Amino acid sequence: MASTLSTKHVLGIKHLLKEDIELIMETASYFKEVINRPIKKVPSLRDITIANLFFENSTRTRISFELAEKRLSADVINFSASASSVKKGETLLDTVQNILSMKVDMVVMRHPLQGAPYFLAKNIDANIVNAGDGTHEHPTQALLDLYSMQEKIGEVAGKNIAIIGDIRHSRVALSNIFCLTKMGANVRLCGPPTLIPKNIGSLGVEVSNDIKSTLEWADVANILRIQLERQSVKYFPSLREYSLYYGVNRKLLDSLDNEVVIMHPGPMNRGVEISSDVADSQQSIILHQVENGVAVRMAILYLLASRKEG
């Protein structure tokens, strides 16, 4: 197995090798053990300064990254675009150059525009971690999803993984597709035809509009929320109708002969794509995903810092 990442940045799963993913998983297992100790801090990033640049609202991802950074003893700068000079017309590059003049080593960035982290990576010297760019990718979410699956069902190679819901607007879906297919899983997308992009089958995935047959096929179902904030037109008649045909509820799961592991990247629209009695059930590993997010992000930051030193 590789001992360092092949890349200076984590911009997207598309650009990671299978060996990179395996190294991140192995390192995350070590940090999972660390964060369950009575003393959860390690000095691994003591001399590293990390700037969290969030140009888009986020609660879970931002808190997860900040906790990961602090567990590693990094110095942390939090930057929110809503309270910054960006609103006064400052460009993205100006903002980052100003922050880098403060000697920042790494930038964790979420941005509403696709490709923004790639732009930064070409123009500044710091390591960049993409925390979500538009509807493009969200690599750390896919990695924590993979870690959570492996923890529950073992290696995903040959396993059947369903991704259900708003595929069209989901950066989580795209990163999961890249990640799971690289690791040898069988991936099936399921949702209304209007929420599944044309030609997405070219990425090596199956496509279905039948949720029951998809769940009968699946070992794991990763359920995505309906992203109304990204929808400029109506893709289905109503939330009630979506829930009726594509919502995962107890009655639907009880009608299956198999038991499916339930995941959700959050935030959940309870009663729309997932019912509370499914989200809070024994089949659900949603809270494990949240916990594992810290360990996986610790692993990524640690490995990038190690590469810098190397």
Can you walk me through this structure?
The structure is a single chain. It is built from eleven helices and nine strands. The protein has helices spanning 18-34, 60-71, 92-100, 116-123, 139-153, 171-182, 211-217, 239-246, 250-254, 276-279, 286-309, and strands at residues 49-54, 75-80, 106-111, 127-133, 160-164, 186-190, 206-208, 220-223, 261-263. The chain is an alpha/beta fold. The model has no long low-confidence stretch (mean pLDDT 91). It folds into two domains: 13-138 and 290-309, Rossmann fold; 139-286, Rossmann fold. Helix content is 39%, strand content 15%. The protein has a five-stranded parallel β-sheet with strand order 7-6-5-8-9, sandwiched between helices. Strands 2-1-3-4 form a four-stranded parallel β-sheet, sandwiched between helices. The longest helix is centred in the C-terminal third of the chain and has 24 residues, at 286-309.
